[in-house]
Amino acid sequence: MIRSFILYEFLQKRKINEGFHNLCKIVSNDVIGFDEFQGKTGFGFSDKNLLFNGSSGQTDRPTEIKEEEEEEEIVIQQEEPIEKRRECKKCGVFVTGDSNSSLKEHAIEMHSDTKQFKCRQCDYSDSRRHRVTHHSATVHRINRRNVVDLIDRPWTELMMECFPDAVEEEEEEMMAKESLKWRKEAASYECQMCNVILKPWGNNRWNLKMHVISMHCVSKQYKCRTCGFLVSRKTSAREHSRRIHGKDESPEDLIDDKMRDEWNEMFEKCFPEIASTTQFQL
After folding, report:
1. Total structural domains within the chain
2. Where does the record place the C2H2-type domain (predicted)?
3. Do 230 and 155 share a domain, yes or no?
4. Which of 70, 88, 214, 222 could, after both became Cys, cross-link 232 (CB 3.0–4.6 A)?
């Protein structure tokens, strides 16, 4: 009987964790464990005859070929990503998933009496949104969004009862993100020459460098080839050439070691606290 149920899940092309979840609704959790179910589906989903009859009906192949196939199968299994499996503290069922959405789905459907989603046309309600959408399409012939979310709050208490470890990990990740965001917001520097406060862009602090070059340095890096117009940015020089001379040509680059020395000296005056770690390469 259990093999028949597993065969049905195989024919429906469902995932292993979803098939095991559906089987637990029909039979008790004590009849078959997840590891045993996964062991059966590991053979049965690749050969439905083996799943249903207990034998593949094929003749034995040479031992060398079998060993090569086993080695190939082992390599494939090692390359597959390992998904997290968490045990529900209330029912002992293992739930597989990369995010907490599958854990929340299990907790709501199996351990909550509240039906979160309701049809707008009648009193039908369910714990899953797609079931209410399907009901609306088949019963009321309405294919558009026709679902009311009755509860708009996090399921923290229920999740703490079922998967406390996952809730704690999620809280730690949120705290780490908030801490990183605070550090990024706090990392701002004030120019000592003009009192402008800037936040660095990237590890090379490109915007701080451009502020020093364009606002406080006399030397200009780019020169117009037609009229000798000097500017700090290459894009500004090309825009000048298109607007004034009607042609798009690259400017002349005047950079040399003397100019870089001037930039480093001025950067130390503007941002002395990070001048030792932020320099223009010579």
Report:
1. 2
2. 222-250
3. no
4. 214
Residues 213 and 159 grouped into a single domain: no
Q: Tell me which residue range forms the domain holding 242.
A: 189-277
Classify residue 3 as exposed, middle or buried by CB count within 10 Å of its CB (0-12, 13-18, 19+): middle
Q: Are residues 100 and 154 in the same domain?
A: yes
Residue 11 domain flag: no
Listed residue (157, 282, 260, 263) closest to 214, CA to CA? 263
Tokens representing residue 8 in the block: 């049905």
Give CA–CA dist 244/240, Å, rounded.
6
- DSSP symbol at 245: I
Alpha helices in 163-256 (DSSP H): 164-186, 206-216, 234-240
Residue type, 111: H
Q: Can you give the pLDDT of all 282 residues of the chain as single tens digits?
A: 777 777 777 777 777 777 777 777 777 666 677 777 666 555 444 444 444 444 444 444 445 445 555 555 544 444 444 557 788 888 888 887 666 777 877 777 777 766 677 888 888 888 777 888 888 888 888 876 677 766 655 566 777 888 788 877 777 777 777 766 656 555 788 899 999 988 887 667 888 989 999 899 988 999 999 999 999 889 999 999 999 999 989 999 999 989 999 999 999 999 998 888 888 864
> Residue type for 233, please?
R
Residue 194: CB partners within 8 Å, gap ≥ 6? 215, 216
Q: How far apart are CA 271 and CA 15, in angstroms?
A: 57
The residue ranges of DSSP E strands in 120-182, in sequence order, are 125-126, 147-149
